[in-house]
Design a protein that fits this description.
Blueprint lengths: L1 H8 L13 H9 L1 H14 L1 H6 L4 H18 L4 H4 L8 E2 L11 E7 L2 E6 H7 L1 E6 L2 E8 L4 E5 L2 E2 L2 E2 L2 E7 L2 E6 L5 E3 L5 E3 L13 E4 H7 L4 E3 L37 E7 L2 E6 H7 L1 E6 L2 E7 L6 E5 L7 E3 L2 E4 L2 E3 L18 E4 H7 L4 E3 L2
Parallel strand pairs: 3-14, 16-24
Antiparallel strand pairs: 1-14, 2-3, 2-13, 4-5, 5-6, 7-8, 9-10, 10-11, 11-12, 15-16, 15-23, 17-18, 18-19, 20-21, 21-22
Length: 369
Amino acid sequence: FFYEFFKVYLIMPMPGSQEMESISIAYFLHQYRWVFRILFVLMIVSGVKNVLTASKKWLPISLTIVVTILIYLFNFPMSADHMFLQPAYIKFNNSGNISLNKEAQIIGVTLNGESKAYPISYLVYHHQVIDEIGGQTVMVTYCSVCRTGRVYSPELNGERLQFRLVGMDHFNAMFEDTKTKSWWRQSTGEAITGSLKGSRLPEVPCVQMSIEKWLLLYPNGLVMQADTTALPNYDTDLHFEQGKSKSSLTGTDSSSWNKKSWVIGIVNGSESKAYDWNYLKIMRVINDRIGNQPIMILLANDDKSFVAYIKPDDQDAMIINDSILYMGSTFNFAGKSLTDSVSLTPVKVYQEFWHSWKTFHPDTKQFPN
């Protein structure tokens, strides 16, 4: 019982488990689980004769039954991939056939001229959605405990990998590929243990916006529809994405620089930086540098949609009615010029809980500090 409990404890959000550097122990216990189980079964079998001849045999027999039930619960109903299922089917509709609240937020991806949006209220439950955009397979992921949306290509070294949700590491969702059984961190796409340790899945650029803003920018885009078999598990009231969740794991701290405060994170080479969400809401645009690279970060009027772009120089960008004014030109929120064919170069930018960003980017700088 203690073995099975500890194996689950180390990779689930239980008190104290996610603060420890225990991934190697957890992986060892998981990989050799059948060795341990066979050993314990042999130990139990060796004592059966003595139990059956004892006067109080009901006690060990009862305990064995109880432990068997608990082991079943740990390994099936309570396992991550049984609690959070991938979609039974994936269906998309265009802007004229969407029942979602216009304030709902999505993770949007554009590849080879095709645009698709994945509602966060669905992703929070599914954790991953495997789809094809513009002829390319993508793995759209989300972890509500870290507030991290990421999109990856599940192909590595020319081979397509398949993944299942296995648990958590430092409060971040963790996937296991079915071929090598390596464990992968959702927030970085890195294999943190197993034979592929150190490998990274190729990241696919994405945006996080309200569905209303995204459809204005991508009117021909398609939006993922609800899997009707999973409807009871969706956050249809948008409590999580609006910061109204009361859970200690997914709730929001509306102040700045606390564990559950929101930040905007950007990485440039070896340098990373976190920007206070509350400051961005006041300023609407932040002109800054990461390393030697000038950048702009912008927040739309809906207080949900955000983007970041590279600046060729240190001139300040401005935002008026969600239009970007920079170097004498006007661009829409997607970075497309309103007067010519010039486009701004996007920067990968993420919304995240502060505890998550600083855990996986320990040398990050803060703005404003």
